[in-house]
Amino acid sequence: MKLIKSVGSMRLWSNQTRARGKTIAFVPTMGFLHEGHLSLVRRARREASAVVMSIFVNPLQFGPREDFVAYPRDIQRDSALAGAEGCDVLFFPAKKQMYPEGFLTRVGVERMDGVLCGAFRPGHFVGVCTVVLKLANIVRPHVLLVGQKDAQQAVILGRMLRDLNTEVRLIVCPTVRERDGLAMSSRNSYLSPKERERALAISRSLFLARKLVLCGERKAARILGQMKSALSRGGISDIDYVAILDAKELVPVKTVRGEVLIAVAARVGTTRLIDNIKLRI
To answer: What is the rounded CA–CA span in Å between residue 273 and residue 267?
Structure first.
């Protein structure tokens, strides 16, 4: 596996790879890899002849009171994991490579970035869109892969790539969970053993919602009420949102029909966790 740190070298590699007729799949990450990230690499290998993963903890998507400095980083561990999965290039740029002096441009998707996590993390998705578009312009992939756990991010990136007429195809891969149902996340490392046990209430509330829908319940308010009760019973009271929305437009629904996104964001201790499921009725 090749480690590339500069924008110029990454672009040169991509141009040469494309010139040889190869296709490129790209997995953008902030590092501290877990099985969810590695599953994206495995899917990427099936989708293209070369795989690039980026590791960049993007300062633009962190708010002033968020965990940018504390966000876990371990490039040696990440390099070993990515290489073992057959990643061809690990792109590991410094902040000054991505945001040189005088950088002023931001990219955002209106309306969609103001709901769910966007309502509690102003500017977060502008940071996400800006860095992903920059990375896509540098890596020049044919395919970009993200996980369903970051559902709002996936919807927003898909809209951005379409609206800006890019030629990048977005693939959204299923959420990878621990055996007990907890969605894998780099932030799980912040949880104490007791907090991790409480965090299971998040996925359990989602699985309850799925069971209710499959048993015939269609009233969103009733489903949300039972989800909130399940979270409370599980010891989670610091909730940002429990929501049921149209999966493509991110608009809240009163009745479950078509494809819906059921999503939760809550804090366990000081750690903010998100999870979701999609259903098609």
So the answer is: 6
Starting at the edge strand found earlier in the chain, the sheet holding 24-29 runs 2-4, 89-91, 50-55, 24-29, 143-147, 169-173
Structure tokens at 121: 């993390």
Categorise residue 116: left if φ over 0, alpha if ψ from -120 to 50, beta otherwise.
left
- How many whole angstroms from its chain centre is CA 186? 11
Nearest residue to 264 (alpha-carbon basis) of 186, 209, 195: 209
The one catalytic residue in 34, 37, 124, 142 is 37
Whether 37 is catalytic is yes
3-class SS shares of the chain: helix, strand, coil, % to 5: 45, 20, 35
Q: What CA–CA distance (Å, rounded) separates 159 from 155?
A: 6
Q: Are 130 and 105 in contact (CB under 8 A)?
A: yes
Catalogue all structural domains in the chain, each as residue range(s) with its CATH number: 2-173 (3.40.50.620), 186-275 (3.30.1300.10)
The number of beta carbons lying within 10 Å of the beta carbon of residue 143 is 18
Q: What is the CA radius of gyration of the chain?
A: 19
Alpha-carbon distance 178 to 185, whole Å? 10
In angstroms, the CA 130 to CA 103 distance is 11
- For each successive 10 residues of the chain (281 residues), what is the average pLDDT? 98 98 98 97 98 98 92 97 98 98 98 97 97 98 98 98 98 98 97 98 98 98 98 98 98 98 98 98 92
Angle ∠(69,72,74) on CA atoms, nearest 5:
120
What are 44's two structure tokens? Answer: 């990427």
113: buried, middle or exposed (CB in 10 Å: 19+, 13-18, 0-12)?
buried
